[in-house]
Amino acid sequence: MLLMTVSAWSAKYFALGSEPSEITVRRWIQNGVLPGRKVGGTWYIDEHQWLAGGDELVLRVLAEAG
């Protein structure tokens, strides 16, 4: 599991100027579109689970690699 802040995730996977708003990403997490959670007052995305796309083998490989 690799938790990333919403801003770090957006910066890594979207081109400058095309990032979704933090409110949109929070809504995606709350609705189950993106794997993530709120810890304290900060929202995080589980990058490994997102990249695996539900594939358990890929998730295990990502967990071992990082």
What is the residue-mean pLDDT, rounded to a whole number?
89
- Give the proportion of residues in helices: 40-55%
Tally of helical segments? 4
Low-confidence stretches: none
Question: What is the overall silhouette?
Answer: globular
Radius of gyration: 12 Å
Sequence of secondary-structure elements: EHHEEHH
The order of strands across the largest sheet is 1-3-2
Q: What's the topology here?
A:
Layout: E1 3-5, H1 6-13, H2 22-30, E2 36-39, E3 42-46, H3 47-52, H4 56-65
Antiparallel strand pairs: 1-3, 2-3
Structure commentary:
This protein is an alpha+beta fold. The protein is 50% helix and 18% strand. It has 4 helices and 3 strands, in the order E-H-H-E-E-H-H. A 3-stranded antiparallel sheet has the order 1-3-2. The longest helix has 10 residues. The protein is globular. The mean pLDDT is 89.
Give a brief description.
The protein is of the alpha+beta class.
List keywords for this structure.
4 helices; single chain; three-stranded antiparallel sheet; 3 strands; alpha+beta; 50% helix; 18% strand; 66 residues
